[in-house]
Here is the input.
Amino acid sequence: MKPEGLKLINEEGLRVDGRKPDELRPVVMEVGVLKNADGSAYVQQGNTKVIAAVYGPREIHPKHLTLPDRAILRTRYHMVPYSTDERKSPAPTRREIELSKVIREALESVIFVELYPRTTIDVFIEVIQADAGTRTAGIMAASLALADAGIPMRDLVAAVAVGKVDGQLVLDINQLEDEYGEADMPIAMMPSLGKIVLLQLNGVLTEEEFKQALQLAKKGIMKLYEYEQQALRKKYVEIKPEEV
Ligand code: ADP
Here is the structure.
């Protein structure tokens, strides 16, 4: 229940954190943040902070999971106990198990798994601070970490959630908007191919609102896609040749 008097859009048409309806939260993206993973990335969107680590392609344990014609993809989405207002149990919840599955399905359509038969690619997503949009930030971090690990993909994946708050569609919702809004629609895409790899809807939208929400998400996704490319380029441009 929304607390009485809580306005998610004020008289000037601005949101609780001062953003316009079609404005993304400030973004930080960094590639190659962990030395012990084959690929890694950090993504921050407002107060949501996520780190992803990729291992592989590597040998599978247990062996019976091996597939003769492709790599298997294993994903774990996990929120650390201190990521939320109230301490979250470190044990995997039903929500984390479901999110691990939908993120795996999204990434499976992106990676050329057929290039690495009899191996596994393992993706670990750790949410270190949650303020909504953790699955979308997690997918982007995973996509950057996969690129960092040199795993061939059809495209990068960019993702964002559109919400409906106080009757208005807004881009990249935060926790308050997620909690007290009327709808939440996370979307992940391969932007340059125009393909949607994840779309979920919590709440109710009319057909017209759904179409507008999709357009709004695509606008945000194209921006996030640019940031992802910048983050990848930065890592490789920053490598300085060793002195001889
Ligand atoms: P997403 O993070 O992808 O938006 P949800 O819509 O399920 O996923 O969650 C929205 C937000 O609710 C999360 O980002 C987090 O801030 C908060 N949240 C989710 N699960 C918990 C939890 N177990 N305890 C406290 N807050 C939570």
